[in-house]
Design a protein that fits this description.
Layout: H1 26-36, H2 38-58, H3 113-149, H4 151-165, H5 169-180, H6 185-193, H7 198-211, H8 215-222, H9 227-235, H10 240-263, H11 275-281, H12 291-318, H13 327-335
Helix pairs in contact: 1-12, 2-3, 2-12, 3-4, 3-6, 3-7, 3-10, 3-11, 3-12, 4-7, 5-6, 5-10, 7-10, 8-9, 10-11, 10-12, 11-12
Organism: Microbacterium imperiale
Keywords: Cell membrane, Membrane, Transmembrane, Transmembrane helix, Transport
Protein name: ABC transporter permease
Length: about 325
């Protein structure tokens, strides 16, 4: 009787790994990479909190705020105009956590400094938004047309761009601010946006010069798509990452530009208020009342830093190849 051979046992099938990125849209991948950047996410949240706090405190437009003072009403000075904000609890020997009558103090003529600072934050955000959106739209259109058509059109548009880009932004802004500063912050920001598009135009042009040679553009031409459709439906969505990142950097620069112009008395004019104008009006009292410098300067730096951090996060999310240099990772790779 022949010996029965044992049947071969089949090895268990290796578990199939499914790539998490399969079936995930490009927008979802960008959002996932942005949310992974903790600094950018926290900066975005803090920026929204600062903007929301300033608008809820003194109101915005016809919507009233919860703060009892405004940025134009004079009040008798109390305690020499010193801040009444207290952040030390009583059990630590302080006066307790409270805002007091004038948490940021009072100006030299008795106006509540908290209301003035919140109004300055609002105006800085308005200028940032209008210049960021307006300058981005103008620069994107000019750069897209120049990069797509090339030739004579490209030469003319780029020479115009070169003329504006070699002039310092502060000089152009001073001319615009002197002419429009007294007309309100919205018109000032709109006119500044008309002279803030040059860098974005050059970046978008460079992207279009590269993308217009791709196969999908040729396929759209063969299918009979018009130039406008190819520009705005096919090429621009593939360059949107550069546009968004450049827009955030332009917005951060807009805050500093408006502050500089207002400090030079060429931006927002009284009775309205700007962070730069607050510093300019009270600079002679900085040594005796240093809080007149602390509060507006803190919000200027804070707003600019937060927007820059958000821009860095968007840049890394749209182009993960642009990773920052890490000395620790470099040493680890060299030792391995």
């Amino acid at each position: 009787m022949s010996q029965m051979m044992p049947e071969p046992v089949e090895a268990p099938a290796a578990p199939t790994t499914v790539d998490d990125t399969v079936g995930v849209s490009q927008g979802r991948l960008i959002l996932r990479r942005f949310l992974a950047n903790k600094v950018a996410v926290v900066s975005g949240i803090l920026f929204l909190l600062v903007v929301g706090f300033s608008m809820s405190a003194i109101g915005f437009g016809p919507i009233p705020g919860w703060w009892k003072h405004d940025y134009t009403t004079l009040s008798p000075q109390t305690g020499g105009g010193a801040p009444t904000l207290s952040l030390v609890p009583e059990w630590l020997g302080g006066n307790g956590i409270s805002l007091g009558e004038h948490p940021f103090g009072q100006s030299r003529i008795g106006i509540d400094y908290f209301a003035m600072t919140m109004r300055g934050v609002q105006n800085s955000v308005i200028v940032m938004f209008v210049i960021g959106v307006g300058g981005t739209v103008i620069g994107t259109v000019i750069g897209a047309i120049a990069g797509y058509y090339r030739g004579v059109i490209d030469a003319i548009l780029m020479r115009i761009t070169d003329v504006f880009i070699v002039i310092p932004a502060l000089v152009i802004g001073a001319i615009v601010g002197r002419a429009t500063g007294g007309l309100g912050v919205w018109l000032l920001a709109a006119f500044l946006a008309l002279v803030s598009w040059m860098v974005i135009a050059r970046l978008v042009r460079a992207e279009f010069l590269s993308l217009r040679e791709r196969e999908f553009v040729e396929a759209a031409r063969v299918a009979g798509a018009s130039d406008l459709r190819i520009i705005f439906k096919h090429i621009l969505p593939n360059a949107i990452g550069v546009v968004i990142v450049a827009a955030t950097l332009l917005a951060a620069a807009a805050i500093l530009l408006e502050t500089s112009l207002s400090y030079l008395q060429l931006g927002v004019r009284p009775p309205d208020v700007s962070l730069g104008l607050i510093i300019s009006d009270n600079q002679s009292a900085f040594q005796t009342r240093p809080w007149l410098f602390w509060w507006p300067a803190t919000f200027i730096v804070l707003l600019a830093l937060l927007v820059n951090f958000v821009g860095d996060g968007l840049r890394d999310a749209f182009d993960p190849r642009q990773k920052r240099f890490s000395r620790r990772r470099t040493k680890e790779r060299a030792s391995s």
